[in-house]
Design goal:
The protein has 188 residues and is an all-alpha fold. 68% of the residues lie in helices and 0% in strands. It is globular.
């Protein structure tokens, strides 16, 4: 029998570390007047001679425009991420995040030369779709997956066509597609 008080457990190391690193990047952004985010934590068209180009393909998911942007993404990461990390393991979830960041960073770099991309919304969509696939059984398509694809990804397609805002709906769609691919390939 244990005596004593309650312990705080670092229960989802990849998810918690991702959230804390993103918060640290946000503080660094404020401290450097945005220079750190421009240098490393947003992806934009730059030459391959610029050594910062390569890490930005992945690190852009740690950068956020402001606290509300950060909170909007991290609340979903902190809700959806821990069950995924428990189901698939820390290392596979880490590589799923890196894969999704790299794919969305490369697509943005290739097709949107005049804008910069930052934020974890692609990771959020990847996690949402992966979590809807987590309970998939052989020969069955979960209704939750269908609803997620219709509501989230379908909504992003509609928003991308009808809205002119600073939100990258394509990144959300790419995150959802990466989540479907990874969720199907990582099923046990």
């Amino acid at each position: 029998m244990r005596r004593g008080g309650i312990r705080i457990q670092y229960n989802a190391p990849v998810v918690l570390s991702f959230a804390l690193l993103s918060l640290g990047v946000l503080f660094l952004d404020r401290f450097t007047g945005g220079r750190s985010t421009r240098a490393l934590f947003s992806v934009y068209r730059s030459t391959f001679n610029d050594l910062g180009t390569y890490p930005r393909f992945v690190l852009h998911v740690l950068g956020h425009a402001d606290y509300s942007h950060y909170i909007g993404n991290m609340m979903m990461v902190l809700v959806v991420g821990p069950p995924l990390e428990e189901r698939y393991g820390s290392r596979p979830l880490f590589w799923a995040i890196v894969f999704t960041a790299l794919v969305s960073g490369l697509v943005h770099w290739l097709f949107f030369p005049r804008t910069a991309l930052m934020g974890a919304s692609g990771i959020v969509f990847m996690m949402i779709v992966m979590s809807s696939l987590a309970g998939m059984r052989e020969g069955c398509i979960p209704l939750t997956l269908i609803l997620v694809l219709i509501l989230y990804v379908g909504g992003e397609v509609v928003s991308g066509v009808t809205l002119a805002d600073n939100v990258s709906q394509l990144t959300h769609i790419i995150g959802g597609l990466c989540g479907a691919f990874l969720g199907l390939s990582m099923r046990r």
